[in-house]
Amino acid sequence: MATKHEQIMQHILSLEIGHKISVRRIAKSLNVSEGTAYRAIKDAETRGIVSTIERVGTVRIEEKKKDNFEQLTFAEVIKIVDGQVLGGRTGLHKTLSKFVIGAMQLNAMMQYTEAGSLLIVGNRVEAHELALYEGAAVLITGGFDTAEDVKRLADEIQLPVMSTSYDTFTVATMINRAIYDQLIKREIVSVGDIYTPYDHSYYLYTKDKLGRWYELNEQSTHTRYPVVDEKGRVAGIVTSKDVIGKNKDISIEKLMTKNPMVVQDKSSLANVAHMMVWEGIELVPVADESDRLKGVISRQDVLKALQESQRQPQMGQTIDDIIASSLVQEESDTTMFRAQVSPQMSNQLGTLSNGVYTSLMTEAAGRLLRYSQKGDLVVENLTVYFLKPVQIDANLLIKPVILDAGRSYAKVDVEVFNGQKMVGKGILMAQLMNR
Q1: What CA–CA distance (Å, rounded) separates 346 from 338?
Q2: Which pLDDT does position 187 carry in this prediction?
């Protein structure tokens, strides 16, 4: 039977896009407390299926899929450009597919303006009206207003007409930046992207007997299972080591490891990988905020996803992407790397940033370990000596050397040269994630 929280979520999902939602109305219609309704609505907002819009309220919106995350709602646009809504406020939850800069003749402008787009234009009232008829929202730059007829039309067709004090170029840059930031976020793999949901995974109840473990083991060939209580909350985890030599009539609750490590689906994959490597864990339960089991994630899932993410094309560049792309393997010696210092890598003094310095060393050490078939690294300790400042446009030679390596650890010495002079040195200790 679904919990009250789940019933509210199902109710919200059944509502039409744009439907107004209130705590009191949901509490009354589903016969739950207002506190329960409030928490469920906040959870729905976190999941991206409702949005709270100023002077409109909380409304049902279309859930953003990860593969379509670069789209913005008009409500997000108004926050980005610090603007105000002149009309069509009830349409703020809708998303824009593209934006058009109206710095051209009216006829040419309308050729590019289509349904779902956003026209960025100055005080050209005729363009405002035509854009709305085409199904496009309007963002007026320069702080200008529009005609009352346009505002009424916007209200009727539920498409926003907005105004901002910024100029057209600045507005376009700000929106591009927001889309770009979301592209970077989209590339970050989370537990929710790869975990196995509970309805497709195996688990035990605290009141089960050990015989049930053997039944699941025969069905799945797995040896590790999360254990939940009668409310579905994670209570422990049981492995083959816990059951060897035990009577099959003994309760699972007496055998399980209590208070196991648990993660949420929003946790980043890198963070979970770090925990699993450090603790030597093969299986981690995935739970919601109330510790109810949502599924499981295994060490194999993590390794496969990490290796897959390294093969994916990058769409939005973080500073680490820039550093990685700047590092080139030496043709004469594949254990050494070169990097050109770009302005993006510098600090306020125009010299190589300390953070970039350490990232270059870590990236070079990681590549050497991968080329040596040792596996991917998780840095445990890095000691860096900054011997000399490095100027912009300097051509660095980075020499990592494996001092020691075992099945699960490595020690790497890294030296950085600018010309013939050593400018930095580091010792890196890392845990290895074997392929």
Answers
A1: 17
A2: 55
